[in-house]
Protein 1
Amino acid sequence: MKFNTFGKLSLASVLVSTALAAHAGISVENEKGLFTIGGDVEYDLNVVDKERKNQDRQDFSQSGRILVQIAAERAVANDHYLKVQVQPLLKSTGDVDLDDAFFAMGRQADWEVKIGRFEAFDMFPVGQDTMLDFAKVDVNNNVIEPYRLKDARGRGDYGQVSYAKSLDKLYFEVGSLFKENSGADQNAVFVRPVVAFQATDSLRFAAGMEANLTADKADAENDYLGYGATIKYAVSDFSLDVSYAYRDFDTTDQEDSSIGAVIQYKRFGLGHIYSETDTGSKEKMNTTWASYEIANVMDVQDFSIYLGSYFSKVDNDNDNDNDDQDVGVRVRFKYFF
């Protein structure tokens, strides 16, 4: 979501002055409930080497943003609540963007209805992804990510609605996402049901699917059925996530699949995704990333420096000249206020 120049400056000024006046990070409680304001700063120093059709290019850059989180929650009768949250992003490029912006109502440990802009259940976790990108690109050199059952997960510019229900160890969620399609069909509505089961304190299983309810031949790029599953095992300082996702297009012969594994041990994270696109010939991509957190910098509990890197390579069965490859390293400065 982008704003015009006047909107950028006005919003930035309001947020900065509000944070200063409120001594950012505070919580205020009154008869209408709990109001909080805080956020985080995230700035990166990046070095990336990209090989494209036998051309090698190195990119040196600095990127980042300041996220301001404003939230309010009001408790009502019988453990019910109303909740509002908004997270503007002030980017180092000068743009103003938006993460979450939603309204929710529900009952504690029971059900919730949410409307606005947000992220639904994560069916393909990537863990401590300090630096993660992919070598596969389209004809315009835009990055094409592996399919991870996240097309309808959320933070869409055209809105979404979800309903979630908890029953002991079982969690159910169904979300809908509205999209503007650039093709002939301008009315894409996705649905994404997910079921998760907490088998033990350490082990959780989840399965889900997503599909475009309005898809037809005029909307070939969104006319598919996707599904997947993920398993999480966590004990003490160790966690392991293993995920799988697959989609099959109805109007073309394309099939996409991905399998990934992520390990987190204390402050170290390691992940790998193998993805494949089959259109008669197969295109395969392997992507590996790693990250380490240096915590409590300058003895400040909320200040960390992350060291991250990734490697991604595409292999084409019929066109070895298009075997793109990326490698990158990053230093990230992260401070919560």
Protein 2
Amino acid sequence: MDMKSLQIELLIAKQFKDSVFKNTAVFIITFFIGFLLLYAAFSGWENYTSQNETSEKYQHKSREDWLKNPDKNPHRMAHYGNFAFRKSTSLSVFEFGMEPFFGNAIFLEAHKQNTANFSEAGFSSSMLRFGEISIAMVLQLLLPLLIFFLGFNAVAAERESGTLKLLLSQGISWKQLLTGKVLGIASVIMLLFVPAVIILVLIWLVLQNFTISTDEILKMLLFVGFHFIYLMFFCVIAVLISASSRTSKKALISLIGIWLVFTIILPRTTQAIGAYIYEAPSKIQFNSNIEKDILKQGDSHNPNDPHYKAIKDSLLRVYKVDSVQKLPFNYSGFIMTEGEKISSAIYNEHLKELLKTYEKQNSFSKTISFLNPYIAMKNLSMGLSNTDYDSYIDFQNQAEAYRYKMAQKMNGLQIKYISNKKPATGEKPHTIGKEHWADVDEFHYEPKGIWHVLKSEIISILSILLWIAFLFIMIRIASKKLKAI
């Protein structure tokens, strides 16, 4: 691009920007969206601080309660259980994603896998289901609408007034005109986007006490960079529709229709179709199927169960004794270890199948992102802020791994330290010292790293890049085919 052409484009952009702010309505709308951005930043900060303080407080309380338990049977401790709490990441201040609807705490106990509870939506009014106001929501939903409001008459108005032919007759090419208009709209939007990014970065730094990892820096750069590309996409769409419309009214109707399809109709329709094609079992059915398979395999709490009776007979033969009381280790603890292993394996197998169904639903949605950049941006934004469905499943998996380790640790202590001989009437029940409870580490949730996010959201990234490339190609094609009349 030569300097003269760039100067012309910048001049067109400046002229457009100046003309935009002659309209009082633009000032009012821009101020309103700016206010929403500030409110979103404040509510995001408050939500993040409150949730993480609560999670940290109760995680420590759960740990203290666990360690304060007196001497007791380790199997009772396994049933006493523990809690796993999920802390939010710093970028969740700006993108709430699915976090308000997924729980952030799981009760962990032996022989049973629980799901996350205590979601914000569970304690809120139904209005939450319409979506909370976050910075990401303003950037992804409201700024594109503002862009369309600014750009619907960018070229169409000049065609209606007759100045379009005058501009083109003075040697300005269609490519220069379209590019200049895109830059003009972008310059207005940057008056909101740049301050929002500055506030975003400052809040992000303060929340992390100005100590940030490379992983978090990359996530932040991608979060800002792709939102910029996303907004530029809508600037190009606005100018192309305006340039191809005979009147401003037609351009405005077309752009509002595009906004509704991209941000409301397609996302909801895609979710409904995906859930219909790849139907998932209900929670009751899922738990019932697991229970049936466990009973088929054997009930560890039933001494006459064929599977566990066979294990008992085998042990008696190997150790050449005639009763489990004479075994050199605790028989109940051994059976509980086996039962935990079997029930966990069955649960994980059913969960794996369930997740495959959800993965198909999500893959359908991600594939549709090639038709809708909003879905692609939303998925990528949630992935970078660890507020997507994959992050929720990752938390469930980490909690389950911790639960299994805790239960088997208690079973191991029972095998090692608890006698097979039942205490006589009036005697104290068999217990071990409470110092053993510290052998189980405290739960700490580790959010997904940047490479995991990029791998899972590669379709979203490709979709955004392909869309912006496609539209710039369209500018080149349009600049050769568009007419002044």
Protein 3
Amino acid sequence: MRQHTRMGDKLCQLVFDWRAAGAAPTDLSEGSEPSSASDRTGALAQGLMEAVVAADNMRQALKRVRANKGSPGVDGMTVGELPGYLKGAWPRLRQGLLDGTYRPQPVKRVEIPKPDGGVRELGIPTVVDRLIQQALLQVLTPIYDPTFSSHSYGFRPGKSAHQAALAARDIVASGKPWVVDLDLEKFFDRVNHDILMSRLARRIGDKRVLRVIRRYLQAGVMLDGVVTARSEGTPQGGNLSPLLANILLDELDKELERRGHTFCRYADDCNIYVHSQRAGERVMASVTQFLEKKLKLRVNQAKSAVARPFERKFLGFRVIRQKSARLSIAPQSLKRAKDTIRRITRRNRGVSLARVLEELGRFTDGWVGYFWVARTPSVFQKLDEWIRRRLRCYQWKQWKTPRHRARELLKMGIGRYLAWGVAYNGAGLWHIAGCPAMTQSLTNAKLTAMGFHSLHERYLALAPA
């Protein structure tokens, strides 16, 4: 594996070695080096396409695309096949980008179910287009990100969902006990191309970059072999989509700052904090009008509300204010976690307990890794108890017959009378899983030795004392 990786890295170097390709890189305007982000933000950024196709930038983009992996697009090319393809095709692709003739391929539409019902439509670009989008992203981010609001946390270098949730908690603690929770209806599907491109043209003077971005926005969507044209929206799944969303919604951020509001925004999830319900209703009405008239975005009235923070969910958390404001895991997030755990530990799956524990560990490690900032140890303790009981149910079901169950209990040191009595007990699985015979045979320590990852122990390891 290490040898394969080294060979891939060597190929990455060769792909963008301009001397080997027989061409020299074109620098920004008349041989100058790419200007810094601070230089670009005050004036139109020129010669950006040369910066996009520069060898170092492309190597970094290729490395990132390979690390992210992902599914093939409409052409079926995998990430692993990309370096080999580029070795022959890159000079042609590069020239197409430089002379403005490059045209992206359609994206492949994939539908995934949403936790609260419905489906989320993802657009998967080809790996070549993911590479070019990543190269564009690396050049455009230093131009735009320094000018974004400090209240914007989504998909930005050095920003995270944890920071957004903790900022929301601090705002509530400062004395703003009402939240205007705005939900933008199908935001990524409703982005107005003309408005977005006009915002980009304010900062970008390179027509070739603007042209290729518009072509990405307008690239068709392929579903069941049929390509459908797109006149609005920026499909989720493209490397550029989060940055383009932030560029458009930065206008909302600047408007909220101009009005003196305190808010937190993570991508299209925006919470504005106010002192009273009446103030919240005024803000809801005025901001809705701004979004719909200025940015042509639609606010989902059914999912938006003016409420107390503990009644609303923000990035999977809610803010509870008792003696002091603190983060708690939103009930919806806990329910979704339990639904996933139920699916993994479903008793009729027909796979080994070891495999169940492996899948369960991958999920719970990630889940605790995200929600530990809520500082709710009792939630993790109760989940541990509930999961262990489900695992005992699963093992009991796998033993199948009363004779097999009794023998397994005897092997684990359970007394003969208790083992045979439980084995022939007609009670339900959940009742049996909580009886002394099962808790003494499949102890917490034994489940841990078999591969169970305690949520509470992981929480304690992550949460500072």
Protein 4
Amino acid sequence: MIAAMAIFGTLSFTACSDDDDEKSNNNYVVYQNAVNQTVKSQKKNSKVILLVAFGSTWQQAYDAFDSTVEAYKQAFPGYDVFLSFSSAICINRAAAGENVRPRNFYAPPFWLAAFAQDGVKYSEIVVQSLQVIPGEEYTRVINYIKDFANNANGDIDDNYLSKVVLKLGVPLLQDAESDVNEVAKQLNQLYNKQASEGVVAFMGHGNPDSYDTYKANVRYTQLEDALQKYSKNYFVGTVDMMDNFKTNVYARMLSAGINSGKVYCHPLMSIDGDHGHNDMAGDDDDNWNGTKFTPNDEGEVEDTSWKMYFQHLGYTCDNSTMIEKGLLELPSIRQVWMNHTKDAINGEALDYYHSKNPE
């Protein structure tokens, strides 16, 4: 494919000249042509599933995405399956080969437009969010579908748009009851042995308060509550949710009387990427001065990984207690996403105006 792909329409520029506009338009054409050719060459069915992930630049994450695409092809034989990244930064850095060999990914609008091109025109398009919570990134997924359905760029056949069936698969923890409880059940089946030996601390991403779309951060608290019905050694924190940083997890552990022992850490993200490798399992402990940490104004200890944080606090927390697996690498958890896809396919066509916002 073409190298150095970038998401179109979400990049911001401090200044735009006529040359900038021309270059941007040329890039758009190049990217769209590349995706068009991919879809045309790989089209086998009349229906398609588009998996939408935030993205990553790690080989382990790419392997997880690739295996997920293959699992979807096996589970949905009547559908073609493609993967897209929604993050411009991930798309650009992946193309530049930040951590591994360069690889090209494309943003959802390019795929949706390719699905509607002459010679393709899928009769049904299912967009499956690979987000964990229905937060900020899920909102972007909804807006991609709305823009496509409303022919925002004016380049899709209106007659086709009036007939194509659109479906939307929701994030992993969309429902506060059924999804949260099912994921807790599956995680406990996977890690009850570790929970019997010490703390199992799941690290989610979370949204800052100003970006907490649909107040989705509550899903982390709900998941911890559901997990603690199995064992009081389960905890769920985040890297970006106020009052639920690793410092807050530590405070809850102390309140539960857990002041020593093993601490297993596990990413609560679709893939084990930059956050998992660095924020969770990295060796960064610049905040530690030999005797104490210095929290920032929000109460978080910056420049220190979860591993080093708990290690300095006297827990057994090292490379041997890092469970470096993304949720898509766990078939029983991945199945929850796939069940959402089945529900979308078996349900009504998407009311894209109201979308599938969580209640």
